[in-house]
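If I may wish for something, please walk me through the protein I am sending here so I can picture the backbone:
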Amino acid sequence: MLPAPPVRLRDRHHERARLNIAAARHLSPGQPTGQPSNQPGDRPLSPELRGDRDGSGSGALRPDLLVISGPGGAGTTALALHLAHRAVRASAAPGGALWADLSTHHPDPGSDPVAGAVAGWLRALHADRVPEHGQEATALLRSLTTDRPVVAVVEQATTAGQVRALLPASGLVVVTSRHQLLDLAAVDGACRVPVGPLPAPDAAALAADIIGDRATSDPDGVRALVNACGALPAALVAAAAYVAARPHRPITDLAARLTRTTRSAQPALSAAPLSEEETVINNTLDAIYNGLAPDLQNAYRYLATLPGPAFSAAAAAASLRTDDQATDTILARLHNAHLLEHGPGPEQWRMPTPVRVHAEHLTESLPEEDRAAALARAVRHYLMWAAGLETVIGHGRRRYAPVFAWEPGRAPAVAGDQEAITLVQEWVPTLLAAQSAAAAHAMHHAAWQFVDALWGYLIQRQDYPAWRRVCQIGLDSAQRIQDPGAQARAHMLTGVLDRRLGRLAEASEHHTKTRLLARRAGDLLTEASAAEHHGATLLDLGRPQQALTVLHAGLALYQTLPTHPRGQALLQRQLGIAHSRLGHHTEAETHLTAAEALFTDLDESYLRSRLATNRAETALANRRFTDALTHLDRAMEILPNRAVPYDAYLHYLRAAIPTRAGDHDAAVHALNTAIAFSDQLPRDHPTRRLIRELTDQLTETGGQDRE
């Protein structure tokens, strides 16, 4: 009864090895009745692997049970048939070779597919009769196979009960399923072999086999095709055939058509596909969707509205409006059906690429207002989550965005600011996607608030691409809602970014706009904070006297407002730097000491580290090299987990100190470390420029020393 085996299996060495071990006593090599296998994963088995599983030497009155599970198109059927035919060739099926596909086995309308399969097997085994009662039919199947083991393949089982009703008394049973069927392993001793996507090189080779020479000349296109198919063999074969039939089109273009997610409205599972390219990938997933319970179908569609490459269980609960227990059940069942993947983070879930494309199409059957509401709930969740972590990262920072008042006292479970930063970093792609989705759906009141919610992470981690994107979207949304206070916050953060990247003229312009907008909004705290950032930019421009004027104006504003210790400390830090640049060392020390005391009281490790760096800069400028190294060591000790740009600058200073002191060897050693960090910075980053200048200086000095 077995269908023909696959002509060729691509890769799957690990999976075949596990199956061989589990089915060892059915696969004795060298049998004259069969053809030898030439598959890499099918080498002859050692004697110890060919022994009986129960050690009896005669086989137990229960079959060896293997469950091969994976998403649609992963190749579970090919593996099952390959193994079953090997067992038949090895004379492991004196009672016969049986096969049933529970997804299509319907002898009579409305009948049970399992009952139909048992009946078909009994007839194939020449039973005198076929009992009508299910348990009686299963008992007869076991009786007929007690002394005559069979090899049986059960395709597309959905429950353990279906499999148990089809178990013979002896032999080998290979089950394929899109579900993991965990209870078969726990109760029935089944060996589970999960099958996922192909490794990227093997997936590309499989596509190249079908596409031909074009694949060699367009490796990027082949990679795009593999990604479009999620490296699932069945989908990849179909997609590669689609590409091969269109030799006049670049592979990359065709791959893009296969991943297109914006489709015309149509019923969820229309019998008439929109176009060939739009159904190549989805065809393997429709059957899984049809087999889901209605509540899971609904959850599957709504989860596709969640923004980002990954989502959390809490975001899913917000979107679906379910409690934690119900959400956990939904995610587990969809994971069991291979429609969700867990990871890489402990709280992250994601849909594989082809699954997401399929699910996004199905969301079109949902009412537009329901989709928008589900997205709004998810955006609100992520915004509140990020804001909660921001209160840990910069716990003394002034809050402007309304999100910080939505749930007062809501504290994430993190040990401190560095752990909070690490957690935000894991979720940045999803948070950016949430902000983009909010802006795209005119939820501008939410979109701009990501500026405030991610402020501390962006400042400390210095994630420049994310920083630029958050500011661009935030500023646009703030302008659309015509909120001058929101615009001021977005301009301020953009100005800080430009200063960090050395775009000082642009930074100064943003600080000026911040001050004017804050004044229009009546937000004197933001206006005072703008003075601090503007003063820092003027110092970078080499205008310490002008910076001093701006900074004193900001300090005067703070003195007219309710106490805001953190803001005043930040401004005093810049005043200390300005006085130091002007040679006013007593005034500089006064301001720096006051700032350090406040940062210590507020437990602001990042700002304490930055201030220690400022003290090192001042000591270096005054040729107090030992003091400079002491302050630099302290800056590193206070903040052991630093962003790459900050680390690069600290190591630049560590090289600059011995350079100024005339210790060439120590300077070269430190500079090598600084260069390694600078290679990770944008090409025009100020620190990278400083390191290049120091390199040129040391090269010139070294040449003079040799002369």
Residues 683 and 689 are 8 Å apart (CA to CA). The longest strand covers residues 171-177. Residues 30-38, 43-60, 105-109, 261-278 have pLDDT under 50 and may be disordered.
